[in-house]
Design a protein that fits this description.
With 323 residues, the chain is an alpha+beta fold. The protein folds into two domains: 6-115, 3-Layer(aba) Sandwich (Glutaredoxin); 139-173 and 185-307, Sandwich (Jelly Rolls). Helices cover 20% and strands 30% of the residues. It contains six helices and 17 strands. The protein is elongated, with a radius of gyration of 23 Å. Belongs to the thioredoxin family. Residues 1-110 form the Thioredoxin domain. This is Thioredoxin-like protein 1.
């Protein structure tokens, strides 16, 4: 399927694309504009590599044919490139400057890769499995976890190592064929009681929007439960012990009910986004399991938000600045 930029034929078509696509990149051009023609191949290449259905759409608008749109978006020189999120302009590049255009779309690259080509249905292939829908506008940033620095306290030694929580594959508990063929346990479970303390460091500062947990106790295991009460702490240099965790004010407290878990045993925990804007470490303290069970189990942990990759804004013009 071609991913060439969509040539806008009407304002109604453009409005429809803004409603359907989370991110829209716009090239205002004119047929007589030499610089527009010079940079067009680069724009088409970027569209080919970064377009995603209903997520990222590249369009071209002939300013001569659509002077109403050019006026609405204050286009005073050609070419002009806009980056819109949820219909709002966030970045603007004026002129045929390849480096600035590349910088504008560079910030999309990590998010686009995380979006992938699937909707998280848990099917085969090399994509990352998600147990629930990812909130619109955010990405699975679990690959930002520094797994070598992760630590899990009160883990049952007979279960899997902590790194299995961040495995990108579908849990074996949902893939019965895999569970039979592979005796390795790809989940963690508490040992002495129904508490777990999970320390998660990140490769860089990230913005967290949602914590996605998957817990799949086997049918008939009354002594194993899903988490019910969870305390979250951020930006601690190392893991807390259980006494410290109980005595420390958490960044957020979460209480889960049976209705919070979907058919794949996954819950999306919405975080207080303002508090999780600059997160370098996250501690997930399962303070209590459900139904008074003796132990608690976790199969997967997914972090949803925005990766904290450093980027140079260069001469990009932020919307609201004087032109």
């Amino acid at each position: 399927m071609s991913k060439a930029p969509v040539v806008i034929s009407s304002k109604e078509q453009f409005t429809g694309i803004l409603k359907a696509s989370k991110i829209v990149v716009v090239d205002f051009f004119a047929n007589w504009c030499g610089p527009c023609k010079a940079i067009a191949p680069l724009y088409e290449t970027l569209a080919e590599s970064l377009s995603r259905p209903n997520a990222v759409t590249f369009v071209k608008i002939n300013s001569d044919n659509h002077q109403d749109l050019a006026k609405e978006y204050s286009v005073s020189a050609l070419p002009t490139f806009l980056l819109l999120r949820d219909g709002e302009v966030t970045l603007k590049v004026v002129g045929a400057n390849p480096s600035e255009l590349k910088e504008m779309v560079q910030k999309l690259a990590a998010e686009v890769e995380s979006l992938g080509e699937s909707s998280g249905d848990g099917g085969g292939g090399g994509g990352s499995w998600n147990g629930a829908e990812i909130p619109r506008g955010y990405s699975n940033i679990t690959d930002q976890v520094e797994t070598r620095g992760c630590e899990l306290l009160n883990a049952d030694e007979d279960a899997g190592p902590v790194k299995v929580l961040f495995d990108s594959s579908k849990p074996s508990a949902l893939d019965k064929g895999k569970a039979k063929d592979d005796p390795a346990k790809d989940w963690v479970q508490s040992g002495a009681d129904d508490q777990l303390l999970l320390f998660i460091p990140f490769q860089s500062s990230v913005k967290l929007h949602t914590l996605q947990l998957t817990s799949l106790p086997e049918d008939g295991q009354d002594d194993v439960s899903r988490p019910e009460v969870i305390y979250l702490y951020i930006n601690r240099p190392q893991n807390l012990d259980f006494g410290e965790a109980d005595d420390t004010e958490p960044t957020q407290v979460v209480t889960l009910t049976l209705e919070d878990w979907n058919a794949d045993g996954t819950t999306n925990i919405s975080l207080r986004y303002v508090k999780f804007q600059k997160t370098t470490t996250l501690i997930v303290y399962v303070q209590k399991g459900s139904d008074g069970a003796e132990t608690v189990r976790l199969d997967r942990v997914r972090l949803i938000g925005e990766a904290g990759a450093k980027r140079e804004m260069g001469k990009l013009q932020k919307v609201g600045e004087d032109e």
